[in-house]
Design goal:
The structure is a single chain. The protein has 110 residues and is an alpha/beta fold. It has a single domain (3-102), classed as Conserved hypothetical protein from pyrococcus furiosus pfu- 392566-001, ParB domain, CATH 3.90.1530.30. The chain is built from three helices and five strands; from the N terminus they run E-H-H-E-E-H-E-E. A five-stranded mixed sheet has the order 1-3-2-4-5. Helix 1 (19-28) crosses helix 2 and helix 2 (30-46) crosses helix 3. It is globular. 20% of the residues are buried.
């Protein structure tokens, strides 16, 4: 997945209004700042080892968000990494199912 799609319109953060809010929060908290710095060092040496998890709401299919991996996403964006590994799932009324089908890029407006 292109890292450039981690933005406030295509792949959003779940716990923050905007990616800048997440970044600011992580910079302000010692534990979060240390975690991002550790991730940046690890990613620089070995690449991203734990995929970012993306969720898509079946009710609002244009709502794609990072379900798990906000610190990893900030580290990737800060480093300027072009691509990242990910897993994704639909959130449906019947529950959540991890997908093995190709990601539906059309939900990102591409």
């Amino acid at each position: 997945m292109p890292t450039a799609l981690l933005n406030d319109k295509q792949i959003r953060p779940t716990e923050y209004r905007k990616w800048a809010d997440a970044e600011r929060r992580f910079e302000q908290r010692t534990k979060d700042r240390a975690q991002v710095e550790e991730l940046k060092a690890s990613i620089s040496k070995h690449g991203l080892q734990v995929p970012i998890r993306l969720g898509i709401s079946a009710r609002y299919p244009d709502d794609v968000y990072v379900a798990d991996g906000h610190h990893r996403a900030i580290a990737l964006m800060t480093l300027g990494v072009k691509q990242f590994p990910f897993h994704w799932y639909w959130i449906r009324s019947a529950g959540v199912r991890w997908e093995t089908d190709p990601f539906p890029y059309h939900v990102l407006g591409l």
